[in-house]
Design goal:
The complex is a heterodimer of chains A (109) and B (115).
Chain A (H helix, E strand, L loop, with lengths): L2 E3 L4 E5 L4 E3 L2 E3 L5 E7 L6 E5 L10 E2 L10 E3 L8 E8 L6 E3 L3 E6 L1
Parallel strand pairs in A: 2-11
Antiparallel strand pairs in A: 1-4, 3-8, 5-6, 5-9, 7-8, 9-10, 9-11
Chain B lengths: L4 E3 L2 E4 L5 E6 L6 E8 L3 E9 L2 E5 L6 E5 L5 E5 L8 E8 L10 E2 L3 E5 L1
Parallel strand pairs in B: 2-11
Antiparallel strand pairs in B: 1-3, 3-8, 4-5, 4-9, 5-6, 7-8, 9-10, 9-11
Classes of the chains: A mainly beta (109), B mainly beta (115).
């Protein structure tokens, strides 16, 4: 079964501390993985996709097929990073996104 | 460039009624996706339309239906509303099917409340 697991509902860190938002997936084929972010009072927006191997707003995410993980990392958290983060998997020809339950990141001053 | 637009923003209905939600995709996008975000259940895939046809549907009863028009805009219809249909309904658009790793872009959603 296709599944995305985000084990932490809430992650609270201090400004300047490293951040790692965990995401594990279950999928038999070659997955397409994304991180979406929702800032307060804003729409859900794409942050990263694994194929791009890019860094957006200082965030990176590496696909680890052996551990079936796609953790989101940032070396130094900023207060403006506070938001809800969703990991999503797109599997096969169905094109649907399967979302994790999300992690609320709270960056304290 | 305008993003995905949804209307209305909020809607209040009673049990048994019917509702229609609307979505306009980003210009150039031919696919429209509908998701339900109910409290405690997360984002659940509802429907996918591309080039005017339903391509896939999630695990929802048949009273959830929709259509896509020639201009690629879409409607989501829900009949015989039940209390558990109270949720935020999100529409997303994307490029044509078969394009791998193309992201979906989301609208602000329609908040549906069933009394």
């Amino acid at each position: 079964a296709q599944r995305v697991t985000q084990p932490e509902k809430l992650l609270s860190v201090f400004k300047g501390a490293p951040v790692e938002l965990k995401c594990n997936y279950s999928y038999s084929g070659s997955p397409e993985l994304f991180w979406y972010v929702q800032y307060s009072r804003q729409r859900l927006q794409l942050l990263l996709r694994h194929i791009s191997r890019e860094s957006i707003k200082g965030f990176t995410a590496d696909l680890n097929k052996g551990e079936t993980s796609f953790h989101l990392k940032k070396p130094f958290a900023q207060e403006e990073d506070s938001a809800m983060y969703y990991c999503a998997l797109k599997g096969g020809a169905t094109n649907k996104l399967i979302f994790g339950t999300g992690t609320l990141l709270a960056v304290q001053p | 460039e305008a993003g995905v637009t949804q209307s209305p923003t909020h809607l209040i209905k009673t049990r048994g009624q019917q509702v229609t939600l609307r979505c306009s995709p980003i210009s150039g996008h031919t696919s429209v996706y509908w998701y339900q975000q109910a409290l405690g259940l997360g984002l659940q895939f509802l429907l996918w339309y591309d080039e005017g046809e339903e391509r896939n549907r999630g695990n929802f009863p048949p009273r959830f239906s929709g259509r896509q028009f020639p201009n690629y805009s879409s409607e989501l219809n829900v009949n015989a509303l039940e209390l558990e249909d109270s949720a935020l309904y999100l529409c997303a658009s994307g490029v044509a099917r078969g394009s791998s790793n193309q992201p979906q872009h989301f609208g602000d959603g329609t908040r549906l409340s069933i009394l």
